[in-house]
Amino acid sequence: MLRINQRTLTIRLSEMRDAQQIMALDTVVWDDYSSPEPLNWTSREDFLRHCHPGSQLVALVDEQLCGYVGFRYPTMIRTNHHVYEINIAVHPQYQHEGIGTRLMDMVKAWASEQGMKKLSLRVLSSNAAALKFYEKCGFVIEGRLVNEFHVNGRYVDDVLMGYFF
């Protein structure tokens, strides 16, 4: 547990009981600015099919879920299982308090303990704040899919980033 602005920050593996709060966070965080399209789960079962307990590290401030970093193999190909693809979300009310950085530090440590050699992620080129954050966390741009998405009337690139152990 860590202290953040007189509050207690806990980061742990996700559990079944976190599903509803993660789903609610997804509707707030994943919009046209941060994702090619908003993320809206059709049901709790739909969410759990894609995001099973233990596939995220969740951040809680005084027991309120305020962020997570999800991790999974990028493909089902066994020769690709030295890589975790990650996605991170922090509720806007809790951003700029160091929670995202702490989540990134924790997922790096978790992945290293699991024998991973690389973390990968994708981010829209229009999301300058996220690109800067990922670079601050040690990620490098590995590639760019030019004009991959048409969002809000304009084309944006899909930027591929990696972190190597």
From TrEMBL:
Example GO molecular function: acyltransferase activity, transferring groups other than amino-acyl groups
PROSITE patterns in UniProt: GNAT
Keywords: Acyltransferase, Transferase
Domain N-acetyltransferase: 9-165
Pfam family name, one: Acetyltransf_1
Protein name, UniProt field: GNAT family acetyltransferase
UniProt source species: Paenibacillus glacialis
Lineage, opening ranks: Bacteria, Bacillati, Bacillota, Bacilli, Bacillales
